[in-house]
Specification:
Layout (H helix, E strand, L loop, with lengths): L23 H26 L1 H31 L3 H24 L3 H22 L5 H18 L3
Helix pairs in contact: 2-3, 2-5, 3-4, 4-5
């Protein structure tokens, strides 16, 4: 038996099996989990970095509502100077919703003292509206008091 003998078949070489690893399904699951973790981390980072801007936007919105209410009160005063009681009553009526919303926003923001002033201004506006509906020039003093109170609140708010 020689190495040149064709009857001899060489012994088969052992074939190496691939190592037992993860299935494709497990790899896909890990990839999806990693993507979900990255999305959650990005959302949390975005949420935490927008908090200061949200506070600035809320303060600006509050200031805008108070300025709108004060403008309506001042328009009512101008209408009262012109003896246009119907228009004055309408302007005072339009001043009520932003005042009520501002009062609630100030209470939610733990600024109870300013909310009390806004409530007092709202009471003056309602009294002025009633007086304007009765064609009384005393409505002007009520509107002036409401405007003064709103000016104090606007000065106390941070810019």
């Amino acid at each position: 038996m020689s190495a040149d003998d064709p009857t001899l078949v060489p012994a088969p070489l052992p074939v190496a099996k691939p190592p037992a690893g993860m299935s494709a399904f497990a790899k896909a699951g890990i990839a999806i989990g990693l993507v979900l973790v990255l999305v959650a981390a990005a959302w949390l980072h975005g949420r935490s970095t927008t908090e200061p801007e949200r506070a600035v936007a809320d303060a600006t919105r509050l200031r805008m509502m108070l300025l709108d209410a004060r403008a309506q009160v001042l328009d009512a005063q101008l209408s009262l100077y012109a003896a246009n009681f119907g228009n004055a009553a309408q302007h005072l009526e339009y001043a009520k919703p932003p005042l009520a919303e501002s009062s609630n926003a100030l209470r939610d923001g733990d600024q109870g003292e300013l909310a009390t002033k806004v409530d007092a201004a709202l009471q003056q506006v309602m009294a002025g509206r009633d007086l304007a509906a009765k064609l009384s020039l005393d409505a002007n003093s009520k509107a002036g008091e409401a405007s003064r109170l709103l000016g104090e609140v606007l000065k106390a708010l941070p810019r």
